[in-house]
Each structure stands twice: as C-alpha cells, then as structure tokens.
Amino acid sequence: SSDAPASEAAGDKKIVMGFAQVGAESGWRSANTQSIQDSAKEAGIDLKFSDAQQKQENQIKAIRSYIQQKVDVIAFSPVVESGWDTVLKEAKDAGIPVILTDRAVDSKDTSLYVTFMGSDFVEEGRRAGDWLVDQYKDATEDVNIVELQGTTGSAPANDRKAGFGEKIAANPHLKIIASQTGDFTRAKGKEVMQAFLKANKDIDVLYAHNDDMALGAIQAIEAAGLKPGVDIKIISIDGVKDGMTAAADGKINYIVECNPLLGPLLMQSAKDLLAGKDLPKRIVTEDGTFTSEQAKEALPNRKY
Ligand code: GYE
C-alpha cells in the first residue's frame, strides 16, 4: 500500500499523542472522551490524556508538558477561542504538529495548527433558528425567548448564538428577552433558568446551547409548576442519550445534533499526518436534527 514506506521507516514505534480535553462538563464531553480513548486503543496509539476542568490555563499547562515530553502529535479541544498563539507557537517551534478537535481557535496565523475537525456550530445555531421561525410563522404577538449560552468565549457558544440570531431576525416577533451563560452544565442550566423564571413572567421558548443545560432547566421549569415542552418550548443542541430521552418524552421539542464521536477520525488523521500525507485544513462532521417523534424512533439505536 502507499503508506508502507512511511510505516516501515517508523518501525514498530507507537505514535504518542498528547490530548488536552476541555473537562467533563456534559454528556457530550463524556461521549467525546470515551470515543478518543477507545479509538486510540484500537489504533495502537499511545494516548496521554489530560482534563482541564474547563480552564484555559490548565490546557496550556498540559500542552506545554506534552511539548516537553516530545510527543509526536498534540490534539486538543480549546476551551475558549482566544489566547492560543503563544503556546501554539511553542509547539510549532518544537516541530510538533497540532490538531484541533471539536472547537476552533481564532488565531490569525493558521499555520499554527494542521487541521480543525468538528461540527459547524454556526450551522447548528441556524438550524435551531429555522425550526423556531417555522413554528411561529403565524405569530401575531411577541414570542419571548430565553437563551442559555455555553461557556463564555467558546467557539460553540459564540457560533450557536450567532447562527440562531441570524435566522430569528427574519421575524421581529421573535425576541430574546434574556441570555446568560450556563457553562454547558446541568447545574448551571438549572440555576440560571430559575433566575430567568423569577425575573420573567411570560417565557415562551428556551434555546439552550446544549442538552445538559436544557435538562437542568427542565428541572427548574417543573419545580416552578410549568410543563417543559408545552408551557415553554425547548430547543437544544447535541443529541446525547438523556437529551434524546427528554425529547422522546416531549420535554424537549427539537434537538440539533452535534456528533461527539471524533476519535476514529482523529486517530486516522494523526496516522496519515505522521505518514507524510496532507490533511484538509477543515474537516466538517455530519449532523442531523430531531423532533420529539424522530427522537423516539432514533433512541433505541443511539450509542451515546
Ligand atoms: O455541545 C457541549 C460541550 O464543544 C461541541 O461542548 C462541544 C460542546 C457541546 O460541553 O455539550
């Protein structure tokens, strides 16, 4: 095969990959971590894994330690978009290629990383917005929307907000009356939704940037004596098991999928890269959408 010479040159030496994960904030993240760990094992790649607990400084520390250990390739999912140039330059100077998985950086110098693989978050926000625009196409009164944003400064929070805002602008009745971060966690989603409910008497729609925040918010909505999915329509993003279950139960009305199973693609890309092949600068993964009915159908075969 065409990569035989490269693998011979590498002998039996295992590829060593340093992976700096965001944290364990959500069901999506757990599925993503599992996928990366399982596929490294399957691919025979020696994986060094760290969990940054949603803190950029921890991720930078982890990346520096991978540089020191002279790993063959560094992969990471940046907590936030900004502030990576220095450490990425250090990796580049050390001759260690960097692969971005899941989330993007806003570095102007794109030579600081080899490729960025993951979903198109703006498109996810647009799909959420399209659904809402269609639901309320005949509205004659204002529709009050509250938004639970993901981690402040993260690519998915920035992009999901932007894509959604772009679409709902088509109907001036669709109004975001409150928008705050829930850090992509269930606990924070619940807490912020409680505050939203206290401050606003008439909430029609919740748009949550991930399932976990929607699930936390559902608890707050039920505790307030309201019916999630009925009194307050709910849209979220991800499509993890618990989210899909809530959708199948009619508590979440619409889910835009975001596939966390990036492990196999990452491992194959690392092998290709180290065998001297060129990788595309951007690899976009395919995602679907689910109404309650569709979630019910899909649930039995859902892997995560
Ligand atoms: O949607 C959320 C997670 O970066 C796409 O991070 C990922 C997001 C995902 O915490 O649940």
Automatic annotation (TrEMBL):
The protein's name in its UniProt record: ABC transporter substrate-binding protein
Pfam families: Peripla_BP_4
Entry keywords, A to Z: Signal
Domain Periplasmic binding protein: 23-277
InterPro entries assigned to the protein according to its UniProt record, in alphabetical order: Peripla_BP_I, SBP_2_dom
Localisation per UniProt entry: Cell envelope
Entry superkingdom: Bacteria
Matches recorded under PROSITE patterns: PROKAR_LIPOPROTEIN
Coiled-coil stretches: none
Matching SUPFAM superfamilies: Periplasmic binding protein-like I (SSF53822)
CDD domains the record matches: PBP1_galactofuranose_YtfQ-like
Sequence similarity: Belongs to the bacterial solute-binding protein 2 family.
